[in-house]
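From: lab user (bench 3)
To: helpdesk
Subject: output format question, protein + iron/sulfur cluster

Hello, I'm new to running complex predictions and I'm not sure whether the block I got back is the full result or only part of it. Here's what I submitted:
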Amino acid sequence: MLKPRSAKDFPVSSFSVDLGSGYVMCGVCERRCLLKEGEKGYCGNRVNVDGKIRVIGYGILSAIESRPIEIKPLFHFWPNSTALTFSNWGCNFHCPWCQNYHLSFQTPDIKWGKTYSPEKIVKMALRNGDEGLCASFNEPTTQLEYLIDVFKLAKKKGLYNTIVSNGYMTFNALEALYEAGLDGLNFDIKGCYETYNKFIGALDPMIVFRNAKRALDLGIHVEIVYLMVTKANDWDECLRWVLKRHVDILGESVPLHINRYYPAWKYYEPPTDVNKLIAAYNIAKEEYNIEYVYVGNIGDWRYETTYCPKCGKPLIIRAGYRVLEYHVTNDNKCPYCNAKINIVGKFIRNKMTILPF
Ligand code: SF4
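Helpdesk reply: Thanks, we reran it on our side. This is the complete output you should expect:
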């Protein structure tokens, strides 16, 4: 007969510092929760038991499905491939417009929740014919130790590893992911200081740029998402604050996805004005010279298409997050003017995935 598990049945985190007097600090994200005996971290995935932090969300997953890499969105990484995508429970941010609130604001069921071993995840991806893995939907670093175990194994089996994250991890956590075999990531910048102060809880957006830069320096592929949310980050000054850091810190060739927001959870402002999104696209391209800019969630293929930054010809035509035409040479150059195009990995031909509704 199955017995309910307790926190002691879960692994001890190696990303913590014992501060004495019963306090332990979690070193996974820059919230750096200070936990006294029996206390749980903000994300609900870590608890102080007998002076040690136990990873109580380890391997307890909330979703697993194969998805096109374009939907992350990662447009410049293994185009047209699929990634076995998985998520856990809980998050270190509580954005009021969260689309995945049903799993981000829950805590793992440590007593009975089903645990997926790293071996099982890797086996599922291989059986499914996926080219890689993606930890997504909620903040994946809340189960950092699990990701490390999964990614190491996936690497050995020839799969790529990616995450979709709010980018708020510590350097130690990011470097540990890199060492485990992280190949690509997408960081979601929530806006300027005002957005973070008012909606996310006085956190620092510069940490996201700091980490994105560190990832680039390590050789990890980076793309940035800016979900433009009505009255939270959709005004000109806020947009320009983000664009300037993008160019100054990350450079012009890092892709930027400006996505449309729709009301969710407890944020009821109307969906982002499409004119504002198009204006932001033009500003990013023309005034800040960002080479690969996209507008997502508006269903217009022209804004999902990759254009050559030198000659302007359409190179990768996408619609509905699927690749329809691919005109980049095998050595990642524009076939018309020979300009180098920022692509990592191989284009996967003849792969069609039916998206879940
Ligand atoms: S990972 Fe969770 S417990 Fe650790 S610092 Fe971040 S919010 Fe706190």
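A quick orientation on your result: The first strand starts at residue 16 and ends at 20. Let us know if anything else is unclear.
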